[in-house]
Amino acid sequence: MRRAAVQLYGPSLEKIRYLEALRSGKSRCGGLNAGASRRVRASSICATPSHGSHAECIVAPWTGDNPASVIGVSQPGDAILSLGTSTTFLLSTPPANNPPKRTTTSHLLAHPLQRRARIVMLCYKNGGLARERVRGAAPRTWADFDADVVARPPGNEGIFGFYFPEVEIIPPLVQGDFFYRAVEDETPVRLDPSEVPKEAHARAILESQLLSIKARLLAILPVHDTEDAAHHHHQVLDVPMNRLVIVGGSSINETIQQFVADLFGIDVYVSGTKEGAALGGAVLAMRAAGVDVPELGELRKVKSPRQDVTAVYEDVVDVYRACEQKVVEQFAQAKANAA
């Protein structure tokens, strides 16, 4: 009886050498066919003696948890926003002659199932725990946090807040809280924390966390300039995202669902499964073993963007970038002064 596909884990030198031999073609197993979820070769020649696997076991390329999640809960052209302890953004881009740009704060991965398709990945350390810190300790609740978000207008009246209780990945190595007031075409002005209204913090952290993603997408993906009815110039993606799937603990929060839809200007969906990575890995194994893949769980649309709000956030991307640059400079200066 044919066994399921095998994935090799662990840092042992023997496994590393074995995989290197597969890739270089020097092993008796032959060269590695790295096509999406294709079998490399039955293990009867090479894997059985050293690993004790079944003679008919299939050896196939494997993938990590993030690309597996892309397979499990999305299609090419969709994006996944994981709102857990950390924040991770994954965008699956179809094959294109103009690939996404490489940057020092993003990852570009090969799509496990589609040749020449790619996955743009952004990872942030300060996610849910930073939002919880802004929410405040008991008796403050998430309902209080939501009420503060709704009480403030989109753009937060020009107040920008950056919250990094832990050393951040994007922007690199920054830590601390930073506040600015800024409007279009003006240099951001640093604010003392006491100058920020208490109810402004909830919207400020959501805006800074998600505008960071939006700003980087516009820097990574092909874009073109456009002008709105108010003669404001801004950038839009050449190929818009199809859907945005949110997962993680904060994905059940309806206020955050609407906020995400408004800021990115796209319909927001939730998945019927909480095990997207496991589901994607199972899909890869089934394809490698030649098993028909059943229809995956459906996505459910929960929110649609309000176009007037989306227009506000299209106009503040450049202002956000200017504030973030001030954060980087301020932190570097403070670090230099303390040295």
Question: What is the fold's blueprint, element by element?
Answer:
Blueprint: H1 13-24, E1 41-42, H2 47-51, E2 58-59, H3 65-73, E3 79-83, E4 87-93, E5 107-110, E6 118-124, H4 128-135, H5 142-151, E7 159-164, E8 176-181, E9 189-190, H6 201-220, E10 223-227, E11 233-237, E12 244-247, H7 254-264, E13 268-271, H8 276-288, E14 299-303, H9 307-315, H10 317-338
Parallel strand pairs: 3-12, 12-13
Antiparallel strand pairs: 1-2, 3-4, 4-6, 5-6, 7-8, 8-9, 10-11, 13-14
Helix pairs in contact: 3-8, 4-6, 5-6, 6-7, 6-10, 7-9
Notes on the protein architecture:
- The chain is an alpha+beta fold and 339 residues long.
- The protein folds into two domains: 13-59, no CATH class; 64-273 and 295-339, 2-Layer Sandwich (Nucleotidyltransferase, domain 5), CATH 3.30.420.
- 35% of the residues lie in helices and 19% in strands.
- It contains ten helices and 14 strands.
- It has helices at 13-24, 47-51, 65-73, 128-135, 142-151, 201-220, 254-264, 276-288, 307-315, 317-338; strands at 41-42, 58-59, 79-83, 87-93, 107-110, 118-124, 159-164, 176-181, 189-190, 223-227, 233-237, 244-247, 268-271, 299-303.
- Strand 5 and strand 6 form a beta hairpin.
- The longest helix has 22 residues, at 317-338.
